[in-house]
Amino acid sequence: MIDLAFLTGKTTDQLVLFLDTRHLVHREMNDDLIKLFNAAKKEGFDLAITSTFRSYETQKLIWNEKSQGIRAVLDSNSIPVDLTNKTNEEILFLILRWSAIPGGSRHHWGSDLDIYDQNAVSADYKVQLVPGEYESKGPFYQSTLWLNENMQDFGFYRPYSHDHGGIAPEPWHLSYRPLSESFLSEYNFEKFEEHLNLSDFRLLDEAKKNSFEIYKRFISIF
Ligand SMILES: [Zn+2]
Predict the structure, then answer these.
(1) What is the DSSP letter of 102?
(2) Residue 179 belongs to what H/E stretch?
(3) Best CA proximity match to 115, nearest among 32, 204, 52
């Protein structure tokens, strides 16, 4: 049994620091992630992490800032959306396109991470995490192609590679299948509802009203 606090990013019990970074990863993924990074390095790709584990509290901060327009909410083409005339329910689903609901992110598990190739850009390059950076004219295209061919040898895949009508495709997001598949299968709808009843983020009433749709489209995918 995997408990709700773990699934919703409220504990760091199973996490370790990855190499000499500040990034927390699941202790059972650590070795294979190091192997993946080393294999990439041999091919000239210096993989770097923008985020791995993210706590419930951090996701809540991002979520609350987006819901108030403090942090930009982007549309499917990565263009900021004007929230002034939107209903709370519309805002909820606009945010969900790019950001998980607090407690509903795969980043809560330590088995998922966002990466880029720091060899492909200058040291002062600010990574945007937008699809264009990973497509054929973008700096991270070559490392994306290499990952397509090789990451599965180390247990990794991209859970958001296609648009299923929920989360936008995220070519930078990798997941460690041996762990994340079992975490996802543990995280059923009853657990998500229980989590909402314990939560305190903005737009919570709208989230409760739409809990099944949110669960289906943004959590229990694949
Ligand atoms: Zn991600």
Answers:
(1) T
(2) helix 177-186
(3) 52
Per-residue H/E/C for 15-59: EEECCCCCCEEECCCHHHHHHHHHHHHHCCCCEEEEECCCCHHHH
Q: Which domain holds residue 73?
A: 4-219
Cα dist. 22→18, 50, 173 in Å? 7, 10, 18
Between the CA of 111 and the centroid of ligand 1 the distance, in Å, is 10
Using alpha carbons, select from 165, 185, 151 the residue that is nearest to residue 33: 151
CA 107 to centroid of ligand 1, rounded, Å: 6
Residue 98's CATH number: 3.30.1380.10
> What distance in angstroms lies between residue 36's CA and the mean position of ligand 1's atoms?
17
Q: How far is the CA of 42 from the centre of ligand 1 (A)?
A: 25
143 vs 156: CA distance, rounded Å? 14
pTM of the model: 0.92
Strands 112-117 and 156-157: unpaired
Query: What pLDDT digit, counting tens, does each position of 130-171 carry?
Result: 889 999 999 999 999 999 999 999 999 999 877 767 777 889
Considering its fold, how many domains does the chain have in total? 1
